[in-house]
Structures are given as C-alpha cells and as structure tokens.
Amino acid sequence: MKTVYARPKLLKEADFHYCPGCGHGIINRLLMEVIEEMDLQGDAICVAPAGCGMLLYNYFEIDVIESAHGRGAAVATGIKRVRPQNLVFSYQGDGDLAAIGTAEGFHAANRGENITVIFVNNGVYGMTGGQMAPTTLLDQVTTTTPTGRDAGLAGHPVRICEVFSQLDGTSYLERVAVNRPAAVVKAKKAIKKAFQRQVDGAGFSLVEILSPCPVNWKMGTLEACEWIDEVMVAHFPLGVFKEVPC
Amino acid sequence: MRQLMSGNAALGEAAVLSGCTHYFGYPITPQNEITEYMARRMPGAGGVFIQSESEIAAINMVLGASAAGARTMTSSSGPGMSLKQEGISYLVADELPAVIVNMVRGGPGMGSIAGAQSDYFQATRGGGHGDYRTVVLAPASVQELTEVVPMAFDLADKYRSPVIILGDGILGQMMEPVDFDGLVRPPDYDKSWALTGAKGRPAQSIYSLIFDVKLQEEKNWKLQRKFRLIEQDEVRYETYLVDDAEMIVVAYGIGARIARGAIKRLRDEGKKVGMIRPITLWPFPMKALRELAKSVTDFFVFELSAGQMVEDVRLALEGEGHIHFYGRPGGVVPMPVELYRIISRHYYQAHADGDRKQP
Fold first, then answer.
1. What is the H or E stretch that residue B239 is in?
2. Reduced to 3 states, what is the DSSP secondary structure of residue B322?
3. Which residues pair with A118 in a beta bridge?
4. Looking at the structure, do residues B159 and B277 belong to the same domain, yes or no?
5. Nearest-by-Cβ selection for B61 from A45, A77, A86
C-alpha cells in the first residue's frame, strides 16, 4: 500500500492546544513538513510569539525560543547575526507583527535580514479572547469593536505584504491561505520558497497566511473557511507581492 | 600602553577585549560614543554591530544573540533603559547572559542629558516586571572600566543572567588616561543550552511561560537561590580611610569621586572622615556596612539623586548608627568643596550631639 500522507517526524506526538477549526495546526504541520523535506531540522531555529502560537516548542522537534510580544523579528535578527548558517524564522500573529511589533518587523525587513517571518493573519486577537487586531476588517465585530470596526475610531485593516513590499530590503513576500486543500498546498510551496531563499542568502522573506479562527469569529468551521474566500480575500488579496530575482 | 580615552570609548574597547562579539544599540545622549565606537571597532574585530530601530529592538537582538551563544552587549541611558526593562526581565527569566550599560542622565521623563545617579532604584530593584534582581556594577573611573567590563561579562556568563553597568554621563564623557594591559578576557563558559539547531542532539528550547503556577513558583525559587548565591559571593566594594574614621561617607561611581575630594579637605583639617564605595550596588555591601557600624556611629550618604541608595544603607544598618544624607537630583553635579562644607556641618553636629560612640 502506498503511503500518501504521514505525520511529519518533526511534529511532536503532542495534542495541539488550538481551538477546533483553527488554522495554526495546519501551519505548524506545514512548517515541519517543509523543514523535514528540505532536511533542515538540524539548522532550524524558530522564534515563537506571544499569542496563540506561543507554545510551538511543545510541537516542534527543532530549536525554539519564545519572544516577548512583538519582538520576534528582533530576536531572530540577534540569532541570525550569531549563526548565519542556520535557518532562522519567526512565527508571528497579526497583533504580534502588525501592532505591537510593527517596528521590529518593519526594520528587520528594511535591513534585509536574512530571516523568514511566518505571519499568521486571522484578523483577531485569538489568545486573549477575540479583541480587535490591526488586521480586523471594517465592520467586523470583535469584543473590542462590539458594533463592528469603525474606521473613524479604529482605523483600517493593515496590509503587511503591501506595506513591506515598498521596502528595498525585502526579497520575497507572498500572501496565502489555509482554508481549502488547494490553498494549503500553495501555502506549503510559499513556505518552502521562503526558506529556500533564506538558505540561498537572498534576504528577508515573509509568508502571510490567512488563517481561520472560527471560535473568535463566532462561526462554524466550514463557514470560517468560506468567509476567508468570500470576505477576507477581498481586502487581503492572495498572491506574490515581491520576488526579487536571486 | 596608556592612552587618553572617554569613558564611553574605553567601555567599548573593554567590551571588545572581553570577548563581546555582538553589540546592538540605539543612540541616546550621553552614551553615543559607545555606539559610535562599536560601529567603528566591531567589524575589524570580527564582530557584529547593528544600530537598532529602538532600545526595545536592541535588547531583543541581545536576547537572540545571547540565546544563540554569543557574548553580547547593549548600552543606553535613562529613557532608553526604561524601554529595555521588558527585555531585561525576559533575559533573567530565560537565564540568558548579557551586559547592559546605563550611562545615567537626569530624570524623570526626558530629564536632562547631564550625568546623574537617579536610576539606582531601577537598576537595583529589578526594573522590569517580576521578582528578580540583576548584578549592578558601578565604576568610578575610566580605568576602572577595564576591570568592571570583563567582570560584568564574566558574572553574566557565570550566573546566566544579565548584568547592568551603571555609569553616568560624566564617566561616559570625561577623558582620562587608561591602559588595557591588565584586562583579562573572561573564560568561556559551557553554553550547551544555546540554540544552535538540533544537529547531533535533541531539540531544545528557551522560554519563560509556565502556566502551572506551582512550576512557575519552583522556577522563581530557583532564580532566587541564584540571587542568594550572588549576594553571598559577589559583593564588591572599596574602603578609603575608614580605620580611624568617626564618620563614613557612603557614595558610588562619580559621587564617590566627588566625595574623595571632599574627604581630602576634611582630613586636612583633622576631621576623621572615611568612605565606603560600593562597586556592586546589587548585591549591596550590607555586611561591610554592619561591620563598620560596630565602630562608627555616623554614616553620610551622598548621591546625585534625591536619595535612593540611602534606602539600602538604612536596610544594611538595621537601625544602627545615624544616617546623614545629601543629594542633588536632575543632573546637578556639586563640586567637592560644596560637599566638604555639607559634610563638615554634619560632622560638627554629630559631635555637638555628644560622643555617640558606644563603649
């Protein structure tokens, strides 16, 4: 019998703490698959965030360091400047990268740090219970936008890929999603490409991943996946935003 | 070879000679010469210099570099140190070595850019969130930096904890003759805990989040045991003319330099005044002060602040002796003659009070 799928060896035999229908589990699995396929388990160092992704060291069979909220790109910079031969990536949510850690992410990108940022955009603060994120859509209801996000009061959803694409230091930026099997395959390819570019020394790469958060979106799991295609993608179009030839 | 150098530049050179390979910093007066020196010096020394986008980024780059096993440093002053406190708390919790320099300027808020000693509380009480202390070293001369800097890197590695060098704007800016001949690079410590990639060993991780409060308490007690060990083994101080003293001045850093001038004048007049100069502000030389209190009744605390170290002197003396205080906050630097007059008055008053010495 042919094995068409197996749990990546680098994913520990631990139960995910993620909520039903959450995209983090898929993204975690993709990362370990890619690192395994690229044979980089001995080189990879992951910087985990504050947020739903903070327990990555419980799941990843690679070296992991926890970062203070938003500081992932700065911590990754420190590691990479000591160990340029390693694969160094930060895993950051939308609050982490697009609110409290904007400066660190922006300037790591602008310096062209040869690191990769895995940016999980689910449009909401998951771990703290569903408050507004910088990426929350207009009119989207969260616990801190009870009548929907009002641009006059809370500004507009931040498009990280578009903003970072203006920075000369960035080498590869792509926005993908993990709401459908075909999208998951694309997401995996994007992660692999980003890591390969880092291995090749091309400079800063970032993969933004639209990820469902049904519990905080107050939706069913299927409905959440559909909402990404029907609503979220309109503001956060998928695709490659930058690919500097290398 | 003796050369004329500013305290800031000498600190940078001492760091390089101590094996510091990664420096991350953000400009702030009065410590810019450290950042500038490292920008010039690091590339030639095979090290890394990055001018970060903020003090917050700098301390987190330090955290990353330390986690990867490097000997690393950042430097700042007042407002920038406030920003670094989050990272320092994480360094302590993650048990990561690092050296953080604060060339103190007048505060609070934007304050002034003149030298001051008003960040004593912040440095010695932990400074960030959580239950912790950091070693705080207070050099008093440019030459002493060549001892304090390698000591800071050594203690950081030895205890796997951040160490603060608490200088001030005057020490940073003033030029003095200095030689590095006696500087010995601290030994390398085992850093098998560092994150280097799981090659030939199981994956490992560094984190401070422990949801289980019982385990979090256990981790806290582990840190506290380390702090007790540091208190026991790492106290450093210098005494000056204490043998026959009837009054002991307690001063550190640049304050001790000023006090020394005042004491010389007092001694010229036959006033028996000596000094104890803490070199480690934490751990504070509690025992040494209690010992002195056996034969001396009057302690005169002098600081370039409204009174911060004086609280540690009170704690150390446990009600023994009389504590006199003089401080100038905000960046004002009194001349030795000013301090001499103040101490003289207190000295007379102490004696007018009758002989306070216990038989």
1. strand B237-240
2. strand
3. A91, A207
4. no
5. A77
Work out the minimum CA distance from A72 to partner chain B, whole angstroms.
Answer: 8
Q: Is the pLDDT of residue B357 over 60?
A: no
Q: Can you give the residue range of the structural domain that contains A96?
A: 24-243
Domains in chain B, number: 2
Beta carbons of A81 and B66 less than 8 Å apart = no
pLDDT band at A246 (very low <50, low <70, confident <90, very high): confident
Residue-wise pLDDT for A146-185, tens only, equals: 999 999 999 999 999 999 999 999 999 999 999 999 999 9
Give me the pLDDT at residue A13, please. 95
Answer whether residue B160 is part of any domain. Answer: yes
Question: CATH no. for residue A158?
Answer: 3.40.50.970
- To test the contact with chain A by mutation, choose from B48, B59, B63, B85 the residue with the greatest count of A C-beta atoms within 10 A, namely B63
Q: What is the mean pLDDT of residues B210-232?
A: 98
Would residue B11 count as lying in a domain? yes
Domain that holds residue B248: 238-352
Structural domain contains residue B358: no
- Tokens representing residue B350 in the block: 């102490």
- Cβ of B60 within 8 Å of Cβ of A61? The answer is no
Compute the mean pLDDT over every residue in chain B, rounded to the nearest whole number: 96
How big is the A-B interface in CB pairs under 8 Å? 130
Helix H, strand E, coil C: the string for B188-212 is CCCCCCCCCCCCCCCCCEECCCCCC
**Contact residues, chain B to chain A, C-beta under 8 Å:** 21-22, 24, 48, 50, 52-54, 56-58, 60-70, 72, 86-87, 90, 94, 195-200, 203-209
In chain A, % of residues over pLDDT 90 = 98
Of B60, B68, B196, the CB nearest to A68: B60
Across B323-339, b (16+ Cβ under 10 Å) vs e yields ebbbbbbbbebbebeeb
